[in-house]
Design goal:
The complex is a heterodimer of chains A (about 400) and B (about 375).
Chain A (H helix, E strand, L loop, with lengths): L5 E4 L12 H12 L1 H6 L8 H12 E9 L3 E8 L7 E6 L11 H12 L8 E7 L3 E7 L6 H6 L8 H20 L2 E2 L8 E3 L5 E3 L6 E2 L19 H4 L8 H16 L9 H11 L31 H7 L4 H11 L10 H6 L21 H10 L25
Antiparallel strand pairs in A: 2-3, 3-4, 4-6, 5-6, 7-10, 8-9
Helix pairs in contact in A: 6-8
Chain B lengths: L16 H4 L16 E2 L8 E2 H8 L4 E2 L8 E2 L12 H16 L10 H20 L3 H14 L1 H60 L4 H39 L26 E4 L12 H8 L1 H4 L5 H13 L6 H13 L5 H7 L12
Antiparallel strand pairs in B: 1-2, 3-4
Classes of the chains: A alpha+beta (about 400), B mainly alpha (about 375).
InterPro entries (chain A): CDK, CDK7, Kinase-like_dom_sf, Prot_kinase_dom, Protein_kinase_ATP_BS, Ser/Thr_kinase_AS
GO molecular function (chain A): ATP binding; cyclin-dependent protein serine/threonine kinase activity; RNA polymerase II CTD heptapeptide repeat kinase activity
Catalytic activity (chain A): L-seryl-[protein] + ATP = O-phospho-L-seryl-[protein] + ADP + H(+); L-threonyl-[protein] + ATP = O-phospho-L-threonyl-[protein] + ADP + H(+)
Chain lengths: ~400, ~375
């Protein structure tokens, strides 16, 4: 993984953040600096260094009650042994049936990238340890206030306006920008991966599908990103793509925040493409040079082509965002990924400085999904849609759930 | 106190003499029953009103008490509040000092700081009271007053507001008590009158001879009882209404809750920073727009690659960053900073509240 660029925090505060492997190194140096710990405990004697370190990390945390369980992971509420008042979420990843001989890709990706990225809008990974049966445990930041999807769906109980949308989009944008700036593609941005901390801060979670930017000529899979938030290039089977895929997802989240229902919610990949054509316009060589060369590109009838929608269309649909906001939305939902704004350009857009000012995070509407909701969100595997939403593809039956 | 009138010097006096004879003109209360004594906070020498008029009507003059000779002005003469002039003087000084050093406990970070401040002020006051380093102390007091004029004024305003609030509250309470008393008195009167009426009615009925005496007595008793209960409930209701009215009346303009922290005037909001204060800059290299390399040419031109949005420039940026990014990064420094950061984690007091069963009464940080 890339080493850190020099990331300096605003000079007004003296915090300096740098995303490096310092986290894992620190765990090591900490434990090495007090070897008496390891040597005094009887079972620690004669173990390999790696095992001893693992035991030490493991002993620092206590699991409390279970918050949620899925086929992929179990989420527990936990705390530091040294400080019972601390609150943490411990995500125990089950030994996967598909990867009997090792860790599942999702787990590896999640650990790999969360360890690198340290940003207020990205869920913090405090430690990793393995418990018995080689189960991997991730100690994550505790985010008790549910997720954005919950707020979007509760149109009866929760009302919000442009200022709130702007605040949430700002936090999401910063998280994605930080990922991209560190050459990480998230590849699963959707409202229920945006968890809300106790202070109202939105945090990007679930890095199970993340990967670093690809080298030239190295293909990537296009089977990523939950369908409703998947950009057209992935639906056309592009194997070489960039941060623009995350920007599209952010665009659809932006639209969903305003509409309060998913913007383009297709039942199948074909349906999804159809909906995108209807909502935004048909991708053609004119508006997207080279699109026909993509593996999965579908030839559209000249007659059936829908021209790319103009600003009027967006204004009528997303008028509450104001003309400047619509301008941003349009550039995030551009069909051609090269014409889409980057995450940096998104944050540089003049929408952020125009009225209304984003709501302060303390004043954002809260619903309090409670710890259970966090359990729900974290147990999911990347790309999955919850039951009752969209795809109903049966996952493999898992009879091992009860005993693990 | 040295400047107080000499008490033990002259001939023995009867107790109470001091209050009855003016030390300046020697006229006594016996001759002038309406005699009033005044003091000037300059020297606290007591003299009667007519002496003050006589000596100081034509402008400032020296104090007539032997050995004093301070210049006094008529305007500053006033009646003494305390019998003991020592106390009178002390209270005056304390009031003056407190008027200048009127900082409030909320302004201090900790109780210790507040106590230290109080001690310092007390030292100063004590010096003035005891006449130790008076010049020095006065200078200090003046300097402080000049420096902190604005603050002093603000605090004074806050205090007077508070006093007004308390007073208003007391007044409201007194008013309520008065209303209650009045209502009780009216009630009693009503009851007595009704009883009287009932008795008269009974007598009338008996005189008219409607039924026998026992039934009549019972009937009237019942009526009286019924009336009195009805009246009592009505009275209760009206009393509650009155109380509510007083409450509202007092609460609306002079709303005050004790034990609240004063809201600090929020600093003007900073401009919204979409990047949240983060700046990513490369210290050791410049990124060029185009790097010449034949290996990259195909990736730049192949439609299959570019149409999906793949951008060679990103690859170049990453390659450059990976080559130089580690320079100037010292893991030890980062660990220290990271640990400092960790201390500033999200407080879980609200997390606990929001989390419901998550952890009641928990306080502290996540990590």
């Amino acid at each position: 993984m890339a080493m850190s660029p020099v990331v300096t925090y605003d000079s007004t505060s003296n915090i300096k953040v740098t995303a490096t492997k310092a986290k894992s190194l620190a765990v090591r140096t900490n434990s090495i600096s007090k070897p008496q710990n390891g040597s005094t405990s009887e079972p620690g004697r004669g173990q390999e260094l790696a095992e001893r370190l693992n035991d030490e990390t493991k002993q620092k945390y206590v699991k409390d009650k279970k918050l949620g369980e899925g086929t992929y992971a179990i989420v527990y509420l936990g705390h530091l042994k040294a400080d019972p008042s601390s609150l943490l979420a411990i995500k125990k990843i089950k030994v996967n049936t598909e990867y009997r001989d090792g860790l599942s890709m999702d787990a590896i990706r999640e650990v790999k990238y969360l360890q690198e990225l340290s940003h207020p809008n990205i869920i913090a990974l405090h430690a990793v340890f393995s418990s018995k049966n080689q189960n991997l445990n991730l100690v994550l930041e505790y985010l008790p206030l549910g997720d954005l999807e919950m707020l979007i769906k509760d149109s009866e109980g929760i009302r919000y306006g442009t200022a709130e949308v702007k605040a949430w989009m700002g936090m999401l944008g910063r998280a994605v920008w930080f990922c991209h700036e560190n050459f990480v593609l998230h590849r699963d941005i959707k409202p229920n991966n945006l968890l809300i901390a106790a202070d109202g801060e939105v945090k990007l979670a679930d890095f199970g599908l993340a990967r670093s930017f690809s080298d030239p000529y190295r293909p990537m899979t296009y089977q990523v990103i939950t369908r409703w938030y998947r950009p057209p290039e992935l639906l056309f089977g592009a194997r070489f793509y960039s941060g623009a895929v995350d920007v599209w997802s952010m665009g659809t989240v932006f639209a969903e925040l305003i509409l309060r229902f998913p913007f383009v919610a297709g039942n199948t990949d074909m349906h999804q493409l159809e909906l995108i054509c209807n909502a935004i316009g048909t991708p053609t060589e004119e508006n997207w040079p080279g699109v026909s060369k993509l593996e999965g590109y579908l030839k559209y009838d000249k007659a059936a082509t829908i021209p790319v929608r103009g600003k009027d269309f967006y204004l009528s649909k997303f008028g509450t965002a104001g003309p400047v906001g619509v301008d941003l939305l349009m550039s995030m939902l551009a069909l051609d990924p090269r014409k889409r704004c980057t995450s940096r350009e998104m944050l540089e857009h003049k929408w952020w400085s125009s009225e209304p000012r984003p709501t302060a995070k303390e004043d954002l509407p809260k619903k309090g999904g409670g710890p259970e909701r966090m359990g729900e969100d974290l147990k999911r595997r990347g790309g999955e849609i919850e039951d009752g939403r969209g795809d109903r593809v049966a996952r493999k039956l898992n009879f091992g759930v009860a005993k693990s | 106190m040295s400047r107080a009138p000499a008490r033990n010097g002259a001939a023995p006096r009867r107790p109470g003499d001091e209050d009855d004879i003016c030390p300046v003109c020697k006229s006594s209360r016996y001759l002038n029953p309406s005699m009033r004594f005044l003091v000037n906070p300059e020297c606290y020498h007591k003299m009667c009103e007519s002496c003050v008029d006589r000596i100081f009507s034509h402008g400032p003059a020296p104090c007539p008490v032997a050995g004093c000779a301070r210049t006094l002005r008529k305007a500053r003469f006033r009646r003494q509040t305390f019998e003991d002039l020592h106390i009178e003087r002390e209270v005056d000084i304390r009031r003056r000092v407190a008027g200048v050093f009127n900082k409030r406990e909320e302004e201090f970070e900790s109780l210790r700081d507040w106590n230290n401040y109080l001690e310092e002020v007390e030292n100063l006051t004590w010096n003035l009271l005891q006449g130790v380093d008076v010049k020095e102390t006065e200078k200090k007091l003046d300097a402080y007053k000049r420096q902190n004029e604005q603050e002093i004024k603000q605090n004074a305003a806050i205090e007077s507001q508070e006093n007004a609030n308390t007073e208003a509250q007391f007044a409201a309470q007194r008013e309520q008590a008065r209303l209650r008393r009045e209502a009780a008195r009216n009630e009693e009167l009503d009851e007595r009158r009704e009883k009287e009426e009932g008795r008269r009615e009974m007598v009338d009925m008996m005189a008219r001879g409607d039924g026998d005496a026992d039934t009549i007595a019972r009937e009237t008793q019942k009526v009286v009882l019924k009336k009195s209960t009805a009246r009592r409930t009505a009275a209760e209701r009206s009393r509650q209404q009155a109380a509510a009215k007083v409450d509202n009346g007092a609460a609306a303009p002079l709303f005050s809750i004790q034990g609240l922290k004063r809201v600090v005037q929020p600093a003007p909001e900073k401009e919204y920073d979409p990047f949240g204060g983060y700046v990513i800059k490369h210290e050791y290299y410049y990124l060029r727009d185009h790097y010449e390399h034949s290996w990259l040419d195909n990736a730049r031109s192949d439609a299959q690659i570019t149409a999906g949005g793949y951008d060679v420039r990103e690859y170049c940026a990453r390659a450059m960053m990976e080559a130089f990014g580690g320079l100037g990064v010292f893991v030890e420094d980062e660990i220290r900073e990271r640990e400092e950061m960790a201390d500033k984690g999200v407080g879980t007091a609200s997390a606990a509240a929001a989390g419901g069963g998550g952890g009641e009464g928990v306080d502290g940080d996540v990590l």
